[in-house]
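Quality-control log, excerpt.
Job 1 of 2 completed; input and output follow.
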Amino acid sequence: MTVRPSCPAVVTAAGHGTRFRPFTQYVPKEMLPIGTQPAVGHVITECLAAGADLVYVVTRPGDPIVPAYVADLRQQGMPVQAIPENLDHGYGNAAPLLTLAEQLAGCEVFMVAFGDDVLLGHPAGSDLSAMLTLATSGADAVIAAQLIDHEQIASFGVVEVTEPGGDRVSRIRQRPDPATVREPLAVVSRLVLRPAILRHLIPRPEASGEVDLGLAVGDQAAVTDVRVRRLTAHWVTVGDPRRYADALAHHLHGHEPTPQGLIGARTARTT
């Protein structure tokens, strides 16, 4: 009998990395290194440190590289599994959740993290763990955000809260006019969700027909208790060459935990 995880994490690693082509025609962007580990390795570490008991890594169909890396981690004893994305449900950043809908449907909560976005400069999993605490305390969903320069707002989804400095989300706006934004809180790809989100994952005209996770959480915020976590870590991405350079520079200032290093820590806690 298959044991269903009580708190899984979904790590998305199915992007095409168009801004890094031609490199990403051969190597997925999630495998770009930060230090001696690929970006997706840092994200897996973060999810496990936050309390995930199984990490599903959803990969691009036909990609042999990320699944091989995940298989190596699994051989070393890590609770991680690679699953190819099923595009029958449509395209978009929420397609990995629909791929795993059967596995997620019976969970109380689950984490979501994009494999090309890495949180540095803070204990691994600390922000996700705080988000998990918010969710298990009653929130229907928790989304991460970080303050960015006001002039960059037009490139991001933006979280709006019901009162200044509060954490109750009123709505999420996609690439708004910066002049209309009071607090430049950009959506970061870390979420703690309940299975109810699956009902909101539908193709949307405002997302060019794709299934968009931010819009779905925004729908939830209109009718349920959705909270925001203002990140304490430093958010970097390997999906953009300029911000990838920032990730490499930031990593030089401190050592980040590795998936292999976490194996010993998990073993120590369970023996």
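Job 2 of 2 completed; input and output follow.
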Amino acid sequence: MKKQWLLLSLALVLTFVGCNKNDPSSIKLESEDDKTFYAMGFMLGGNLQRLTLSEKELAALYKGISVASKNQKSEVDMAKYQNRIQEVFKARMDKVAAKEKDQGGKFIDTFVSKESATKTASGLAYKVVKEGTGATPAAEDVVEVHYHGTLTDGTVFDSSKERGKTISFPLNRVIKGWTEGLQTMKEGGVSKFVIPADLAYGDAGAPPKIPGGATLIFEVELFKVTKAADANKADASAPTAAPKKKK
């Protein structure tokens, strides 16, 4: 499904900008429709980052869409290149993921050595910023936290702190790095986690904000731990019509 979504994204983005002979940067966003299509292109275009396309490759894509949209004959044997498309996509994404992992590994080593952080057997690195005094969660428990997530270059990809609202969730329903990391904390504590891709979103990433192979950095504050048994009792006693939180 990810590959199909990426292919669809390519087709849509290139239809919007590739078939227009004008320089996209010169186009003025005047109407609400202009702005809507710009927003759509911006959202879908994030997937193109994963392919690191050259100008010539982009031009070839533009040409293919232009020819197909005019119902003209393809210059290549489409049956032959269907499989080749998948092979190229996978090779490009694997290359990006490998580079991200290499950079992430170096980042973790520096974090451990310079900040006296702890590195676990799984590869998770963490540093206690503020020691808590309350309960420590188990994997099945529900935790209430604030967090601020960035890539190794400092780009923010998600932050409950910026939204100004804490979030609660079962600890075993998030990425492995969180499940392991939160179990090193106590209520009232603050920790910094540096999570390698294998404990986060892997080679696929979570586009468009998190590239494949990305190492993630989180600063997490743990407010409350609700034991699994107590959380289940609360759910069971809730009225049938009570809204359920998104997982």
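Post-run check on job 2. The CA atoms of residues 35 and 121 lie 49 Å apart.
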